[in-house]
Amino acid sequence: MVRKIAGAVGVSLAAAGLMLGATGVANAAATSFGGGYWVVGDDIVPGVYEAHPDSDYFDCSWKRYSDTMAEIQKGTTSAKTVRVAIGYGDHAFSSFGCGTWRKVADVAAPDPTPGLIGAAVVGSAVVGSTVLPMALPLLALGSAAA
């Protein structure tokens, strides 16, 4: 009887260990990174990044991408400080010879308001507009004819 209980407890602990080991928190996108190709949102977060290239032999080269290959912006410099704004609409960022990039500021998040306002206005009259006074006589005529 004791062996059965001990065996059941051992199996339960092993199963709990497997479950705890299998679960965890996903890695958050980084705010500092080195050279390579990085996907915005997955690997790195949008923001203003700064790097301090330390090579006297190689220039710092970087690119922002709108998708996997289309370049939005690129640069090559031998400056000791390089600053790049990686936006929310960027797909990826790559660099070579720039050293470590560190986030130094946020970039403005896209404003969803224009799309929401446009969607709400379609088919309706905006308060204070000239549409409503023009539409009232038509509405009155339409309801009188029915």
Q: How many helical elements? A: 3
Give a count of the beta strands, DSSP E runs of length 2 or more: 8
Backbone structural class = alpha+beta
Q: Tell me, briefly, the overall form.
A: globular
Q: Radius of gyration over alpha carbons?
A: 29 Å
Report, as a whole number of angstroms, the end-to-end distance: 86 Å
If you average the pLDDT, what whole number results? 76
Strand fraction equals 25-35%
Organism: Speluncibacter jeojiensis
Protein name: Secreted protein
Keywords: Membrane, Signal, Transmembrane, Transmembrane helix
Write up what this structure looks like.
With 146 residues, this protein is α+β, with helices and mostly antiparallel strands. It has a domain at 32-105. The chain is built from three helices and eight strands; from the N terminus they run H-E-E-E-E-E-E-E-E-H-H. The radius of gyration is 29 Å and the shape is globular.
